[in-house]
Amino acid sequence: MKDMLRVGIIGMGGISRVHTDVLMNMENAKIVAVCDINQARLQAAKEKTGAENAYENWEDLIKQEDIDIVHVLTPHYLHAPMSIRALKAGKHVLTEKPMATTVEDARKMIEAADQADTTLSVIFQNRYNASTVAVKEMQEAGELGRLICARASICWHREAPYYTESGWRGAWATEGGGTLINQAIHTLDLLSYLGGPIKRVLGHISTDLLRDSIEVEDNCHAVFEYENGAKGVLHATNNYGIDAPILLELVYENATYQLLAEKLLKVEDGVPHLVLRGQDAKHLGEKSYWGDSHKIQIAKLYDCILTGKKFEIDARSAFPALNLVKAIQESSAKNDWINLEKV
Length: 343
Ligand SMILES: NC(=O)c1ccc[n+]([C@@H]2O[C@H](COP(=O)([O-])OP(=O)(O)OC[C@H]3O[C@@H](n4cnc5c(N)ncnc54)[C@H](O)[C@@H]3O)[C@@H](O)[C@H]2O)c1
Prior knowledge:
Blueprint: E1 5-10, H1 16-24, E2 29-35, H2 39-49, E3 53-55, H3 58-63, E4 69-72, H4 79-88, E5 92-95, H5 103-115, E6 120-122, H6 130-140, E7 147-155, H7 160-164, H8 172-175, H9 179-195, E8 198-206, E9 219-226, E10 231-237, E11 247-252, E12 256-260, E13 263-268, E14 271-276, H10 286-290, H11 294-307, H12 315-334, E15 338-339
Parallel strand pairs: 1-2, 1-4, 2-3, 4-5, 5-6, 7-10
Antiparallel strand pairs: 7-11, 8-9, 8-15, 9-10, 11-12, 12-13, 13-14
Helix pairs in contact: 4-5, 5-12, 9-12
This protein binds nicotinamide-adenine-dinucleotide (NAD).
Nicotinamide-adenine-dinucleotide binds next to loops.
């Protein structure tokens, strides 16, 4: 049995620093190839990681036979084609969120993963935040009872240059949406991970403060209904003045909890009390919002692959979050409820 995975990384932009830092500190990972169409980023990544090969063409990286796993860290519209090609070449794949920009592509990825004898995982690192883990454990132990309702408030700050300088953000074809698919998707994932399957949604999206710079939405509000009848509301915006900690409140039969990023609060008599501080934000600035939990997800995934176990965040498990994003966008266009189809 192998004791190490040989890694190829496609896309050496902003988030690649988090992946390379994690991988370079793991004993069971070795970065052997990096790829980017941007020469300067490619060379910097090769030097930083000591990768043997640096490719400008992602198909060449996938052709490298001794690569076991490919990390896909590119713009959203490239996740599906790159992941599918890598699966077909017999590689394991870890793609950044969102898994794809359309539900149809996500289904093709699930099909490719089913046919491959390898794993497709999608980064949803917030499932490993201390607050999420604590609620999941109580739920699985049967302590919380049935979900009654849930609410989420996602208020982030993004200015026009974040979109215009990227070359891919802000456009439907390349980003697949705005605040929902890029920022809120982590919370949409937790809404079903901790709350259960969602049956239908009615949502409204709009392009407001950034309407002169982008096509996609920078605001959204929605109501939704779980399969068990529980009600949910959410709002998400990129028009706030700071990246505020995301609030996710889950009202169960036996207890009400609020997740504020890593922190967990229990609401008693209407007052939230801190019950778990979680990891204090060691990295002030952007990384504290992305969460520190990438390293936990990557380490768990690698352990599962190396020991032949199924990893929990596979393509099917990642599907509901993208499905909800797309249903809200569709609901807004039709101004009507959308029933969520199962995987
Ligand atoms: N999990 C998180 O918290 C988190 C945080 C930030 C970003 N992300 C995700 O990571 C992904 C990348 O985001 P980013 O902020 O690093 O973007 P970025 O624009 O900084 O980096 C993307 C990189 O991909 C490269 N690229 C584009 N087309 C390519 C191609 N055909 N072949 C090879 N390389 C190509 C670009 O040159 C660029 O270097 C996105 O899916 C984003 O949503 C996730």
